[in-house]
Structures are given as structure tokens and as C-alpha cells.
Amino acid sequence: MRATSCIRRLALAGAFCLGALALASCNNGNESPRGGSGIRQETPAPGVEPTATALPATPPLPAPEELALERVFGWYDPQRPTHLEEIPDGSGSVYVSEQDGRLVEIIGDPGAAEGVSRVVLNIEDRVTTRVLEEGFLGFAFHPGVSRNGRVFVYYSAASPRRSVISEFRLGDDGEFDPTSERIVLEVSQPFGNHNGGMLLFGPDGFLYISLGDGGGAGDRSGNGQNLATLLGSVLRIDVDAPGVPYAVPPDNPFTGMTAANGEPARGEIWAFGLRNPWRLAFDPATGELWAADVGQNDVEEVDLIVRGGNYGWNIMEGDDCYKPEFDCGDVAPPGLIGPVASYTHRLGCSVSGGYVYRGQRLPSLKGAYVFGDFCSGSVWALRRSADRGELNTGTRDSGTLNSVATGAGWEVFEIVPGDHQVPAFGQTLDGEVYVLTYSPGIFRFVEK
Asked: Do 344 and 298 form a contact (C-beta atoms < 8 A)?
């Protein structure tokens, strides 16, 4: 049955402060209330304009069907999964990171009753999970892993509190050697929440990293609008540069520039103004970079990340003006990029970013960005309408309290009602999208 006749329209869902790695929306005793001290807006230096790749228009697709979730890899019960990825070596093996510090290899057909799962990297001895949003948060295989055996990981460490991006090497036994660790980058974290934690290689071969604003509520240090810090940003680095842990690609937008506070801008930054970007994803067909940014107390958002883009935090929270003193009105302030889609905490409380579906099993879902909410468990599909969606840089549409708002030229559908806590999604090389849950279990979409 088609969604045009039967799809569930974004039913009211209560928002609850549940303990989870992505739950940066909820205040705790260490956080300040909304609307803290004023922070200057950081804008790109002259000559730096946010850029996006021009894409050909695509014909409209049928509305996604209402779907159900089917358990896969049933022999494996993930423990607080944070990411799923297929290794690009032709083996078909899928890997899952578990928040406590384990990387698990899954071998077997997703729909089979039996298969193999084994821990191939255990770094529990160096990962801290003292705060619920800390832990082993992400990993990415080097595109040449079949030749060089390299995997990059993102984890939280203590004493001092910091985020660690490091590299491990594959041993002859098919496991990643924990003694082979090479630190690529360490970022000091003032609080234990808002860590971001996504790693992925882009079509350009560079490593992209998501970092939250450092935690606390309201970004009291103004990191999101400060180009002198790596916090609150998406980074882009070259991990193949010889003789150094990494290099800054020369075409990064802020290389050699000065931040608003007079300090040198960090050249690693690709885009900024983010609060807690919980998952990034490249569309394998278009090269577009998607992000889901967890909100403060009111609004969750989905963004298209472009070179040099400023996504507004902590001036904006999604579509809304977070700091009343800026008097945002109905038009996004100049220089800021608004979300492609957003929703209020009537529908959930912590967005979990997903992937653009490019698989073959569900033609009606092709080309749609799939994302969900950890608290409500709802899963949505977002895509361009016949008018073809663009970046949201003008008039804002906040929608209603009980619907997902979109920018002009976009449409969104709820494809799965809230049945599970959804911390993350995964995608295999064939374009299929998987749903990671705390049920526990891994699921895929099937037609009802």
C-alpha cells in the first residue's frame, strides 16, 4: 500500500530525558539554562563563501511506502551499538562498534538464522564511559584497507577528558592489533557530552570528523561560533600525508584565516556552527554530505553540510532563534545556513542521523535520506520534491508542533512508527540501510 493513502503522519510523541550517548538535548546539573552570555557570531573571512556541488534535477519518486523493521544478523546481540559499516575489501563482512570499546565483525547473510560474530578490536582499557555520551563512538575503514589494513576510530578518554581519533592496523589473524595504535588527533573536552563522534572518508579520500560544541547547555563558551577551536565543527583532514599524523588539505575553507576573536582559525574546519552532529553520511550517488545535529531543549535538525558553511549554533537552534537578543524573526540571519528539516520535542528528543538509501530492495525509498529519533523511535524519509530542494538560507518554515518542518523543495514521510530506541544507523556497500537499536538488535526495512 502506498504512503499517499496509508502513511502515518508524524503522530504526537512525548519527549523524555533518557540516558543515551546521543541524548544531548536534556539538561543536567552541570548545564546552564537557555540563553546564556552573548557570543559574537563567527562569519567566514572575505572570499570564503559556503559552496555546494550543483546537482542535476531528478524526477520525483513515488512516496515511500509505510515500512516495518525486520531483525537481521539474529545470532548477534550488539551491546549499545554506535556504528555499522561494511569493510571495503570484497569479503562482505560487516562491523559494528559497541560503546564500551569493542569492534565486532559479523560474518554471514543478514537474513540467515546462523552466522559468526567475533570481537576484532578491544580497547575497553582506554575508553571511558563515565558520561552516557562518552565511549567508542565511531570508526571508518581506510578506502585502501584491503592493501594497508588501516581502520580509524573515535573514542572518549579520561584524565584528561578528551576525544581521541587514532589508527589501528589489521594483523595476520584478521583482528586489529590494539598495540598498533597511532594517535592522529586529540581534542580536549570540557564536558562529557556533545562529542559528535562520527568518522567517514569522503569521495575525495579525506577523513571527515564530527565534533560537538564541548558540552554543557547553551554552548556557554561559544565554541560553535568560534573558528579558533575544533569544537562544534565538521573537520576534514588528510591522513595519508607522509611523516605527520595528518595534514590540512590546502582547499579547506579557513586555512590561513583569522577567527573573530583574533586568533588563527583552525584549518581543519570544513563547516561549523554545530551543537552535537550525531552522525554524518555521504550520499554515494551525489557526494552530498548529510548531518543530523542534536538540539538543546526544543528543536532537532537535519543539515546538508557544505564547504565553509555556518549552521548557526548557538544563535539558532534548528529553525528557531536560540538567543532572543538576535531577534531572528522569520528570516535566517545573514551568513547562516538553516536545516533542511527540523522537528520539535513533541516528536522526540534526540535526532539520530542516517543515510541516503541507494539499495535495490525498496525502490520507493531510493534517494531518500533516512533518519530517526532515539527517544520516540520514529524513522523518517526525507528527499527532494518535484521542486528540488536546496540549502535553507532564507525564510524559515517551523511547521507545526506535531510535524517535521522542511525547507522549500523537500518532503518528509514517517516510514516506521516508534518501536525501538534508535541510537544510530548503518549502510553497506550495496546501499542498503540498517537500523541499530537498544532492543538489542540490528534491523532492516521491509515492506508491510
From this structure: yes
Number of domains in the chain: 1
Sign of CA dihedral 234, 330, 341, 12: positive
pLDDT at 334: 79
CATH of the domain at 386: 2.120.10.30
Strands 410-416 and 405-406 come out as unpaired
pLDDT tens digits, 338-391: 999 999 999 999 999 999 999 999 999 999 999 999 999 999 999 988 655 555
Per the listing, cell 520514529 goes with 378
Residues 6+ apart with CB under 8 A from 352: 22, 278, 279, 292, 371, 372, 373, 374, 422, 423, 424, 425
Q: Are 84 and 139 in contact (CB under 8 A)?
A: no
Between CA 134 and CA 51 the distance in angstroms is: 33
HSE, CB side, 13 Å, CA atoms: give it for residue 137: 37
- DSSP 3-state assignment of 223? helix
Could you tell me the pTM of the whole model?
A: 0.88
What is the phi-psi region of residue 273: left when phi exceeds 0, alpha when psi lies from -120 to 50, beta otherwise? Answer: left
